[in-house]
Amino acid sequence: MANEDKFMMFLAKCVLLIRIIRKYLGIGPKERVHRSILTEAKFIKDLIEGHSRECYDLLCMNVGCFLQLADEMKTRGLLIDSRTVRVEEQLAIFLFTLAHNKRNRVIQNRFQHSGETISHYFNKCLKVCLRLEKYYVKQAGKDVPQEISSNPLFYPWFKDCIGAIDETHIPVLVSMEDQSRYRNRKGILSQNVLVVVDFNMNFQYVLAG
């Protein structure tokens, strides 16, 4: 028998032996976990084109606001479509997680992606939202507000006033073990937030916890 024939025979025996071992140990090809017929692309399409309440119920944001936010992130170059995940889906992953306080495994099933993909895009969108701060959060100017300067009862005693400060309770979704810490005197789960607003009702400062 030629050397080449001996080598092919040896290779065939090796393949057969590996198959026997894999069958004995119960090792087979990995079964696909995420195989829902409602693919991620179709889910987002239904979310945008479906009933307006569906988007609000799932993302706590109406369709127009959701599309506008996604478009701004794209326009400013903060988010771009990847090979498999469009910007709208990246943002939906982020908003869905925040809206319902769900674990990574639940989001995997909803969007049909791996845990690594879900975690990657959640953290990416979180960083993008922080980068949007400079476009929307403006500090109060040094000029005395007209509401004070034009009123002799307030000026000059309140000339350095930048707004009003107050606390408000924001509804929250937390795990069962943490609910006792977030239950207010009315029996509702909420978080106490301290805010400062100017005379145009624009936020100047927020202390969320």
Protein model, in words:
With 209 residues, the protein is mainly alpha-helical. The chain has helices at residues 3-25, 40-49, 52-59, 63-75, 87-100, 104-111, 115-131, 133-136, 146-149, 179-182; strands at residues 164-171, 190-197, 203-207. A hairpin with a 5-residue loop joins β2 and β3. α4 (63-75) crosses α5 (87-100) and α5 (87-100) packs across α7. The longest helix is centred in the N-terminal third of the chain and has 23 residues, at 3-25. It is elongated and about 105 Å long. The protein starts with a helix and ends with a strand.
Question: Which whole number gives the mean pLDDT?
Answer: 82
Relative strand content: 5-15%
Helix content: 40-55%
- How do the SSEs run, as a string of H and E? HHHHHHHHHEHEE
Assembly status: single chain
- Spatial strand sequence of the major β-sheet: 1-2-3
Element layout with pairings:
Elements: H1 3-25, H2 40-49, H3 52-59, H4 63-75, H5 87-100, H6 104-111, H7 115-131, H8 133-136, H9 146-149, E1 164-171, H10 179-182, E2 190-197, E3 203-207
Antiparallel strand pairs: 1-2, 2-3
Question: Key terms for this structure?
Answer:
single chain, 10 helices, mainly alpha, elongated, 3-stranded antiparallel sheet, 209 residues
